[in-house]
Each structure stands twice: as C-alpha cells, then as structure tokens.
Write a structure and sequence with these properties.
It is a single chain. This protein has about 300 residues and is an alpha/beta fold. Helices cover about 35% and strands about 20% of the residues. A hairpin with a 2-residue loop joins strand 8 and strand 9. Helix 6 packs across helix 7. The longest helix is centred in the middle third of the chain and has 16 residues. The protein starts with 5 loop residues before the first strand and ends in a 10-residue tail after the last strand. Bound molecules: adenosine monophosphate.
Length: about 300
C-alpha cells in the first residue's frame, strides 16, 4: 500500500471506488495500461488529471491481444514499482485484475473493430485489435470514466478506440497524447527493456527515418513514395526487419499508393523487428513534432 493510492485486484471493489468518485460529483479520468510503466504512461496520467479530479489506472497484461508466438509470457510485470510511480504522478485508483476475473470461464463475446484494423498492425497481429477493443470496452464499463487518455505512440489503437467510443455511444471523451521519447529519440516502450545496447542503437534508425520523412514533408515533398521509400531503405540499412513502413490518411488509415499525392496531414507508421523485439512508431506529418535523434 502506497500513500494515496488504492490498488484493487477485485473488479467489484474497484467499480465501487469509481462509483464513489462519481457519487461525490467528481470527474473520473482513466488510463488503461499493461504496466511496466515509463514516463509516457505517466504523461497520460498527468493529462488525465487536467481533465478530472480523480484518476484511475488499470494495469493488465491482456492475454487476448497477444498472438500465440508473441511475448505475453515474458512481458515485464512490475506492479510494485508501477504503483510507486503512479503515486508520484497523482493517480489514486489502480485496478490490477486477474485474467480469470476479466475473462470469466466460458466467455465468448468479442468487440469487432472493422476497417480501421485492416492495415498496419492488423494483418500482422490477427485478433490483436479485437482483443484490445474487447478489453478496453470491459475496462470502460468497469471504471465509467468521463475521460480516457491514450498515447499516439499506438496511433492505430487510438483511432480504433476513438471509433469504438463513438460507435458504441459511450459517454467517454477519448484524448490522444503525443509520443514521449527518450533523450536519444527512441519512443518510450515497455518493450525497449528487451533491447541489447547494440540493438538499441540500431533501433534509433526508426525515429531518424521518421524525422527524415518530416524534413522532406517540411521541404514541400507530397509524393507518397518519395516520403516513405527512404524510410523503408533506412530501416533495412540498419538491419531492422519491417512488418510495414507505410504512409496513410491519418483518419481512415488507408495506405496511399506510392504514386499518390498526400494532403496536408499524412501518417507515417512503422513496425519493425530489432532482433526479436517488435517496435512501433509513427508520426503524423503536418501535425506532430518530429523526433530529435541524437547519436
Ligand atoms: P501499454 O501499456 O503499452 O499498453 O500502453 C498504455 C498506454 O500508454 C497506451 O495508450 C499507449 O499508447 C500509451 N503509451 C505507450 N508508450 C507511450 C509513449 N512513449 N508516449 C505516450 N504514450 C505512450
């Protein structure tokens, strides 16, 4: 138990605490996470605090969003440290439920995502977004927040959840926050812990390639191929195996053909393996600040 933070493993007790917040007429902000928290997560908590008097955070490594050959078993689990960090960031309620309680025996219901899940990570992680949409719907129904804050680091996920809230008529404002990066430019991720020093320095090719695309866009380049092909080449040159490096309309998430002319905003999104670690990153050209990459 950390001062000012109540940690619940029981869904019913956590729900009761959230009810009590609303019962006092206070707004509840919510940040769903899988734990192994870093400064990116804590930024979301700080933003949630600006929208609400009380902030709840869930820490749940959600089995249904991992594929059979993915890192569910080895995903870092650091609950005690996470709770300390959350106390410092001003979250007061933490839900860390068991998989058995989140997915009661015999459950079969899933939330289907539709076309926002068709490109980018969708084809490479079958069932992933359905798992995300299902767990987020459950967490929203448990917490009942006014505002939920997500990171643009997972841009496709953010768009899917914005859409989910709208389509399911949920009375929740979904807020998306810019990616927090390490001093060297690498996007913070719980999975960065898997990288060796050598892999980590090669991984910097990702933010460097995004910054290159931003510079070309800034210089007036609007041809999709001219924006994205150097990104693909840079990842390959660093020995990163890309699942994809694509450029797309940032709302519909449909990739542009290489000969297309992009508009005033364009999403450049990357998923690439550095060794056995799959990293994702993105930038909305014309909107996001380009990463500053050192070294
Ligand atoms: P995760 O624990 O990886 O499922 O992420 C929980 C939330 O934190 C999601 O909304 C992510 O998009 C967000 N997040 C993860 N990394 C970052 C980052 N570097 N900057 C901002 N938000 C992030």
């Amino acid at each position: 138990m950390v001062a000012n933070v109540s940690v619940f493993s029981s869904i019913a007790e956590f729900r009761g605490a959230c009810d009590a917040v609303r019962g006092r007429g206070e707004r509840l902000g919510f940040v769903p996470t899988m734990g192994a928290l870093h400064a990116g997560h804590l930024r979301l908590v700080e933003v949630a605090r600006r929208h609400a008097e009380r902030v709840a955070v869930s820490i749940f490594v959600n089995p249904t969003q991992f594929g059979p050959n993915e890192d569910f078993a080895k995903y870092p689990r650091t609950l005690e440290r996470d709770v300390q960090l959350l106390a410092g960031a001003g979250a007061e309620l933490v839900l860390a439920p068991s998989a058995e309680e989140m997915y009661p025996a015999g459950e079969t219901t899933r939330v289907r995502v539709g076309r926002l899940g068709e490109h980018f990570c969708g084809p490479f992680r079958p069932g992933h977004f359905e798992g995300v949409a299902t767990v987020v719907t459950k967490l929203f129904s448990i917490a009942g927040p006014c505002t939920a804050v997500f990171g643009r680091k997972d841009f496709q996920q953010l768009k899917i959840i914005e859409r989910l809230a709208r389509d399911l008529l949920l009375p929740i404002t979904v807020v998306g926050e810019p990616t927090v990066r390490d001093a060297d430019g690498l996007a913070l991720s719980s999975r960065n812990a898997y990288l060796s020093a050598e892999e980590r320095s090669r991984a910097l090719a990702i933010p460097r390639a995004l910054a290159g695309a931003a510079a070309r866009f800034q210089a007036g380049v609007r041809n999709a191929g001219a924006l994205i092909e150097p990104v693909r080449a840079a990842l390959a040159a660093a020995g990163l195996r890309a699942d994809y490096a694509d450029i797309a309309d940032p709302e519909g998430l449909f990739p542009f053909a290489l000969d297309a002319t992009v508009g005033e905003r364009a999403l450049v999104a990357v998923a690439a393996f550095c060794g056995t670690t799959r990293l994702i990153d993105n930038l909305v050209l014309g909107e996001d600040q380009a990463p500053m990459v050192t070294a």
